[in-house]
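Narrative of activities, Objective 1.

The group set out to show that a structural description can be obtained from nothing but a protein's sequence at a throughput compatible with the screening campaign. Below is one input-output pair from the validation batch, recorded exactly as produced.
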Amino acid sequence: MNLEMEVWDWQEILESVHNGIIAINRNGEVVIFNRAAATVLNIPQEQAIGAQIEQVISNTQLIQVMEKGTEEYNQRLDINDQTIISNRSPIRRGNMIIGAIAIFQDISEFEILSHQLDTFKAINKRLDDVIESLDDGIVVADAQGIIVRANNAYQHMTGITAKEFVGKHVRDLLKQGYMNKSVTEMVLERRSQVNVMDVRNGKDLLLSGNPIFDDSGNVSYVVTAIRDVSQLNELKGKLAESEQIRDKYFRELEHLRSQQSFQKIITKDPEMQKKLEMSYHVANVDSNVLILGETGVGKELIAQLIHRASKRAKQPFIKINCGAIPPNLLESEFFGYESGAFTGALKEGKSGLLELAQGGTIFLDEIGELSLDLQVKVLRAIQDKEITRIGGKKPILLDIRIVAATNRDLGDMVKEKTFREDLYYRLSVVPILIPPLRDRKTDILSLVAEFLGKFNRKYGYQKWIHPDVMDAFLEYDWPGNIRELENTIERLVVTFREDCIGIDALAESSLWSLKPSAKDITSLQSCLEREERRLIADTYRITGSTRKAATILKISQSSMVKKMKKYKITAANSN
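Output recorded for this entry:
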């Protein structure tokens, strides 16, 4: 076979390779540019051949690889909106570097390989120097089944030298025990690609055989690529580990959902009822909502109401307390991080709370406590509807509803340059101001009844509150609002020993100054009857049923009916 024919044969092999192949000479001129490379780079072969490599690929590293004489494997490169993985190696002739070669393919193929080993197709066909630059084993057989070429990688994998099998028929090698399966014979018989698994030299190998056809349609060569699948097994293991991590986050998400204790909102106040109507109305859209109000007025309950009334009700409701999480942890809690992003990070990485809220609602409580640096990143996430984990490069698209809340005056903070104006306007598309309890004192009696019943059930008591204490509650301004009222009721229930919580129970409370004077004190019987009437009326009003009311008060239904007649309580006057 003359030299010209030999070069032509290798050119055919080169053109059949699925991977893109580019080789340059010492002057940086493109000398090999196969069909696959032309397809990926969208550059005609005739335009690339002979051109300087920088004119073909502006961000190439082939010149550096050739000058340094070092290989680069699995290098990412963005070309024509595609991300490819490239292996680059210098081409040596003896001790002299005569050029460099790059073999590349779309990264999606590696993702396919990690899922389906049987679809793996990695066939690299090279000129002599090209073949020796590969880590994959390459074996070439002619149309008669005689081995004509094998690279050093193949010899290393199988533990046999080229002298032992080059020039021999694959059938003889099979009989002599050099191989367990003959991919070459399978390809010659089927005239198509064959992929098999084989064990040689104690290694699991994936053998991929491909026919090379001449102009007449006859098989002229069979090229077999051999790869140690340990790398694929590692990828498979990482995939399994990723699935375990995913399942772990799903379990954590379910745990977060199970901990959601959505509470009912109790109010008779007309202004507060308008706020609830507004909340129900905006729940039907995805506009950002900013809930304003003093500490303890129930801003989180409004956020929960908006979520429950929305189309996202069956999806997560995730709360981030911007004031409770240490500032140095807020960013990782918001956005999550990739493996090795920082010292102390979990090796498998972690999803952020914004990511865990996918499809649902994220509640940013105490939004006014965010640092300016984090305000910028939250604003970008809201505007772009995507985030990137710390240490990550792949953006994650978000489908979440934003509800924020604060007890601070964000307008003043904007003027003081402590809160970003653009973030303020992004969040306050629909502002809802919740009135303090001192402006809705008509709700105090209902709230006291609710909390008293709650803590009586929780601790197994039957405590009731003296009217004088109720009067003190109504006169007090409640700077801590509903939260202060609830905490006060719990404290009185668990600390006062008598079933009737009297005015003495307020001795250590700021409400003590509101105790009644001596002239307001009436007989014990009058107090008991007045309190009994109030309890009967309130319980019937809440339940709407004498049977249910009697069950709560632990009396018979007939006693309940008699007492209602005694105190002239009807459905009309129980409200």
